[in-house]
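Instructor's aside before we start: the two examples that follow are unrelated to each other. I chose them only because their records fit on one page, so don't look for a connection. First example below.
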Amino acid sequence: MNFLKMIYSKWTRQELLGWNSFRKTAYLILPLLIYFLVHDAVEILLWAALDRILAVAGVGLKDFLAGNADTVKGSINGLAILAGVAALWPALWREVAGDGRGAVKGGSCEKEMPQGRKTANMPALVNHYVALAVLAVFSAFGLNLLFHVTGLIAKSSSYGAVSQAQYGVAFWAGLLLYGILSPFAEEAVFRGLIYNRMKRCFGVSLGMAVSAFLFGCYHGNMVQGIYGTLLGLVIAWVYEKYGSFAAPVLFHSLANISVYVFTYYGSLFKMGQAAGIGAMAAFFTGALFCLQYIRKNVGSMEPSKSIAGRQ
């Protein structure tokens, strides 16, 4: 079998059952490795190009770039993120095309609407996505406050270094990078590709757990690792309930934007211990109400009997 065809095609659960462990591992993990390789290669090339520009640049440009070093670094990272996703686009499209919209052919699979999935009229659909938006914001605030009141944020020097770089970029650049580019890229890799494929190989529950764990590890420090794992579980559950790739991307984007906006100037973490605990409890309570609403009113997690792979 052609190697690229194996990696970039969408294979059914029945077809994957006949694969050995090595081929399954390659099918599941190589998209992540491809993303990293392309991202890092493009980032290196962009930095090399910038060095060449600086070698002949005037004092004014050098001073401007030096004064906006974090924003420049974030912008280069953003371009590298786009390149990484572009390298995986054919595989991603085959995985998510037709989510929640009926049959769409891609790879070796034919995608069908999962049996038992509920349809919704426009007012109900609006309510469903409002619930998703509130769940995203409240979950993100609740978890961040949990790490704040327990002292995990203050104790993690590695998170402090990452946070300093993230909040060192210009506000508009941070919104674009952390609110749009990063959420889409991370959802493309961890839910669009890894989760969908793991689900077909090992089932929904294990797919959720492993994709969330890998998502947490991807962030590279304890605070974001725990945060990413917990939020990754919720995002995968949301994906299953809504049956559309737009749902995890929207959830992730709103979670990032809300926290970024309220922490850019440190306002979220300025409250005292008692106020932080009270706010955390309120956010988690609101998130639980949203989870209950979504569980009762949105979609279905019944396994599909089609060969689409949503099994």
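Example two begins here.
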Amino acid sequence: MPTPDDNYSKSEAFEDRNLPLDTAPMLPLALQKLDEIRDILERMLLLAEASADPAVEDAERAALQKRLDRLRGEIDAIAAESGWLYER
């Protein structure tokens, strides 16, 4: 595989990995999946901020952690179902 210092064109780098050059059809799906993950991360941030409040009791904090774990699972599921985007 070429290193960043080598003077390979993008097309030569793609040929080395046997990837098709026309990846435009994948772009809308990739952007959709990134938007889904961004939305989940924003919800996770809100939950983390709520959990950091000193007024939150341990039981509520545990419930928030369960929600965070579920959201992390959603991100993992999105990554698994779109794994073909990253296959070499």
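The radius of gyration is 20 Å.
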